[in-house]
Amino acid sequence: MSEWQTVPLKEVATLNYGKDLSAIVDVAGSIPIHGTSEDVRWGRGYLYDGPSVILGRKGSIDRVKYVEGKFWTIDTAYYLSHFEEAVPKWLYYFLSSIDLRSLNEATGVPSLSRDRLYMIEVPKPPLPEQAKIAEVLSTVDRAIAQTEALIAKQQRIKTGLMADLLTRGIDADGNLRSEATHEFKDTPLGRIPVEWEVKAIKEVGTVVTGNTPSESAFDDDYQLVPFVTPADIGVTNAIHRTIRTFGKASATNVRIIHTGSICVVCIGSTIGKIGITVCETATNQQINSVIPHEPKISDLLFYSMLLNLPSQLRKEAGLQAVPIVNKSTFERLLIAQPREHTEAIEIQRQILGPAANAECGSRTLTKLRALKTALMQDLLTGEARVTSLLEKEEPG
After folding, report:
1. 20 to 30 A from 195, CA-CA: which of 94, 111, 171, 331?
2. What is the second-level CATH architecture of the domain 5-124?
3. What is the pLDDT of residue 89?
C-alpha cells in the first residue's frame, strides 16, 4: 500500500449544494432530478453534466448515489464535482462504505455540513487501481441488479400461478377451471370450484405454539437445532437458516417441529409472515406452526396459507397495540383445497417449479450481496489489491 495516500475528501472532489427544484420541475422534462432516494423526478434544466456522487445534506444522510450525464440535485443533497486524482465511481463506492449517519451534527432532522464531510479521510490508491476497483465492484452490482430483476420476474410468474391454481384448480384434462366452463360455489373465501372444500387450519394439521429453550441450551453446540423467530421468516419461503441455534440435548420441554411444517407469525408487528421448514426446528412464542396431517402436500398447504391467511390474521388481530391471534383463533382460520389428492399433488407440482427458481435466485442474491460487502471491505482499504489484474492488462 505504499502507493496509497490518505487525504481529506476536500482534496479529491468539490462538494456542491443542490438547489430548489420548483422552477424547473416538469412532468414533460427530460433531465433527472436526484435526491438520495430511489425516486427520480424530471425537469427542464440541469446543475451538472458528468459522472458525480450525490450525498444527503438533510434527512437521509446515510444514502449515497452515483449518477452520470445531465442532472439536477435537490436542495437537501450535495453533489460532487471537480474530481482531483479520483475516479468518481471509485469515490462513490468508498463513500458508500462509510457510516455517514455517525457524522450527524443535528439533534433533530439528521444533518451533515460540508465542512464535516470535507474532513473525511480517504485512503486513495493510484488512478489505475481506483478504476479497477470500481470496475470489479460495478461487475458485482450488475450481477445483483440482474438477479433482482430475474427474481422479480419469477415472483410475478409464481404469484400469477398461485392466484390461478389456488382459486380455480385443474380439471381432469389438466386445464385451469373457469366459471364459463365449470361449476363454482360461494364460500367465506370467495368463489371456488365445487370439487374443492374449505377447511379450518386444525383440520389440515396439528398446531404447535413455540416456546423458548433455556439460555444454557443456546450455549450448547451439540446436535444443533435452528431456533426460528419472526426475523428468520420472509427472506425466502423456506427457512434455511436462523440467527440462533440451540443444543437439542440441553433443551428440555422444547416443542420440536418437523421438516415441512408451516410457521406463521401470530404476534407482533410482522403478524402474517409465513415460512416452511426444511429441517427439524423449534420456534419462539410468537409463532404457531402447522404440522400437516398429509406431509406429501405440505407445500400446497403452505402456498394456500400464504394466499389466504395474512388478511384473516390482520382482521382477527384488529387494532390492538400489539397485534395478536391466539392459538384457538388461529386454528379456526380457513384455507381452500381440492378434495381429490391427485389434483392437490398436480397443483403443488406446478407451483413448485417457479417457486424453486425464485428461492434459488434469492439465495444467489444473498451470496452476491455478501460478496460485495466483503470486496468493499477488502478493496477499499487495501486489504486486498487489484494489482495482479492490472498487470494482466499491461501490453507485452
Report:
1. 331
2. Alpha-Beta Complex (3.90)
3. 97
The model's pLDDT over 348-386, given as tens digits with 9 standing for 90+, comes to 999 888 878 888 888 899 999 999 999 999 999 988 888
Q: Which of 185, 165, 207 is nearest to 329 (CA)?
A: 207
At the top level of CATH, which class does the domain 196-338 belong to? alpha beta
> What cell was used for 138?
460495478
Give the closest residue to 313 by CA, choosing from 263, 270, 272, 267: 272
Residue 164 to residue 167: CA distance in whole angstroms: 6
Contact 251, 221 (CB under 8 A): no
- Among 99, 101, 98, which Cα is nearest to 111's? 101
Q: Collapse the DSSP code of 277 into the 3-class scheme (helix H, G, I; strand E, B; otherwise coil) and give the result.
A: strand
pLDDT above 80 (res 260): yes
Most confident among 18-32, 176-190, 206-220, 230-244 (mean pLDDT): 176-190
Q: What is the pLDDT of residue 395?
A: 60
Copy the grid coordinates of residue 224.
444443533
Taking CA atoms, 287 is separated from 92, 276, 284, 319, 324, in Å, by 42, 12, 6, 19, 10
The ranges of the chain annotated as CATH 1.10.287.1120 are 125-189+339-396
- pTM for this model (two decimals): 0.73
Q: How confident is the model at residue 158 (pLDDT cuts 50, 70, 90)?
A: confident
Give me the DSSP letters along 17-66.
Answer: E----TTTB-TT--EEEE-SSS--EEES--SEES-EEEEESBS-TT-EEE
The Cα-based distances of 70 to 46, 131, 140, 207 in angstroms read 6, 22, 25, 59
Q: ∠ CA(175), CA(176), CA(179), 5° rounding?
A: 125
Which residue, among 50, 122, 55, has the nearest Cα to 88 in the 3D structure? 50
Which residue, 287, 291, 314, is CA-closest to 301?
Answer: 291
The one-letter amino acid code at 364 reads T
CB 210 within 8 A of CB 284: yes
Find out whether 33 and 40 touch, Cβ atoms under 8 Å: yes
